[in-house]
Amino acid sequence: MTGPTGESLMSMRLRIEQDIFAVRQLGREVARAVGLETQDQTRFATAISEVGRVLLAEGPDTEVVFSVRAYGVPTLHVTMAQPVSGEAGQVAGQLHQVGRLVDTMEVDDGDIGTVVRMARRLPAGAPGLTSARMDEIRTRLAQHVPGTPLDELAAQNQQLIAALDEVRAQRDDLARLNAELEETNRGVMALYHQLSEELEETNRGVVALYAELDEKSVQLRAASEAKSRFLANVSHELRAPVTAIIGLGRLLTDSGSDDLTEEQDRQVDLIRTSASDLLTLVNGLLDLAKAEAGRIEPNWSDVDLKAMFGQLRGTLRPLATRPEVDFVVDEPSVPTLRCDEVLLAQVLRNLLTNALKFTESGSVRLSVRRVDSDVEFTVADTGTGIPPELHERIFEEFFQVPGSKPVSGRGTGLGLPYARRLAGVLGGGLWVDSVLGTGSTFTLRLPAS
Predict the structure, then answer these.
(1) Are 11 and 22 in contact (CB under 8 A)?
(2) Which spans of this chain does the record mark as coiled coil (predicted)?
(3) Which is it for strands 362-371 and 336-339: parallel, antiparallel or unpaired?
(4) What is the pLDDT of residue 376?
């Protein structure tokens, strides 16, 4: 037999008040037979008895039908129909609290009068509702003999005692959990205070460290300024006597002076060469001191790069005397550049001179191109090259690559540091790409405007 929501299990009618006890017992038996848990059996039976009491007060002959839906989510249903129509709103108001005992409850006026439909989902572990099991349940329910109201009252008392025991157990569990939570909170607060103290101690250490770093920075700045002043003063004081030595050497070898012996002429020439090298070093120190002190102010103008490249080609040609080295200055693809002509020429001259010193064979090439909104000068050589770990160290004062020997001239270790500082003064940067044994490419990048 098929009910309104699935397979019908049992039905009965409420005519007198004693039937309310019988339908409660029957509801509990149905709930037990389909697999509801004990507490859910009590809730389901209580909901049926309360609805039966309300409907019986409206009039006798209430039909109660139990059914199950075995497909989808297995559900136990009960439909209670009262022949009196038009009372759905009043009944629903009286059954407001009953809806909490079941999963769903609907109250409406149907063709047969006021109808109340309730449903309760079966637990996941309930036995499957096969056809054979449905027949077994129907047979068992048909053999059910309702007890007396006194028996039902005793069963309700037992259920109440079980519910109270469960509530007491839950209350004890809740008290235990609250105690554990309180203990955990105390531990968390203790840990929080410990972390706060450690963080405060760390902050004090960081503040002290920053204060020490600030003090060291002031000391370093003072030392750097003292070094710059020392270099400037010493360079300035050395320039006059060194220039005088060069002048005296020139007078001794002048045609108007007395003739010198071959040995004397060689020694005077050695004095002049040493003095010239010393003057170069002094001038480099003075230029570096000015750059470090920030006393170099660019004189901005539109520089004709073609004319500058031609001047560099002419002035440096005497240094490129070895036939094994091709000295190439490309025609600039950028005609003009807003820059300081003197400072730019110094940077390029330092780079070219350095490349010619350390290139034994191959080529030294100067070129320029536009890159995005910048202008990029490159000086590429096929010299000895620089190890990767020394690419930045060569821009330190007085540092020279270990084992490197210039093919011509002597290096002071000041040209590249000074060139990089001038690049910064001009608003750009200077760096090197080099492979040991292959050569080096120095790149000077400046803003185009």
Answers:
(1) no
(2) 150-198
(3) unpaired
(4) 95
pLDDT band at 310 (very low <50, low <70, confident <90, very high): very high
Task: Please name every residue paired with 374 in a beta bridge, in sequence order, or none if there are none.
Answer: 371, 447
From the list 63, 53, 47, 45, the residue with the least C-alpha distance to 114 is 63
- The CB-based long-range contact list for 81-86 (8 Å cut-off, 24+ gap) reads 81/110, 81/112, 81/113, 81/114, 81/115, 81/116, 82/55, 82/58, 82/113, 82/114, 82/115, 82/116, 83/59, 83/112, 83/113, 84/58, 84/59, 84/113, 84/114, 85/109, 85/113, 85/114, 86/114
pLDDT of 5: 58
- How many residues does this entry show for the chain? 449
Examine domains 2-147 and 301-447 and report if their fold is the same.
yes
- Least confident piece of the model among 118-132, 216-230, 330-344, 355-369: 216-230
Beta strands 75-82 and 104-110 are unpaired
Q: Is the pTM of this model over 0.70?
A: no
Nearest to 383 by CA among 444, 322, 314, 313: 322
Closest CA to 302 of 338, 341, 335: 338
Residue 116: predicted pLDDT: 92
For residues 122 and 102, the answer to whether their CB atoms sit within 8 Å is no
Give whichever of 10-24, 80-94, 252-266 has the largest mean pLDDT.
10-24
**Residue 1, pLDDT score:** 45
Compare 205 and 231 and report the one with higher pLDDT. 205
Strands, E, within 15-96: which ranges?
62-69, 75-82
Half-sphere exposure of 118 (CA within 13 A, CB side): 28
Domain ranges of the chain: 2-147, 301-447
List the Cα angle 84/69/119 in 5-degree steps. Answer: 50
Report the C-alpha gap between 241 and 249 in whole angstroms: 12
String of DSSP letters for 257-306: SPP--HHHHHHHHHHHHHHHHHHHHHHHHHHHHHHHTT------EEEEHH
* Number of neighbours of residue 5 by Cβ within 10 angstroms: 17
Domain 301-447 listed as CATH 3.30.565.10: yes
pLDDT of residue 340 exceeding 50, the answer is: yes
- 2-147, what's its fold? Heat Shock Protein 90 (3.30.565)
Give the sign of the dihedral formed by CA 16, CA 18, CA 21, CA 25: negative
Q: How far out from the chain centre does Cα 151 lie?
A: 71
Reading the block at residue 439, the tokens are 């050569």
The CA-based angle 378-380-381, given to 5 degrees, is 160
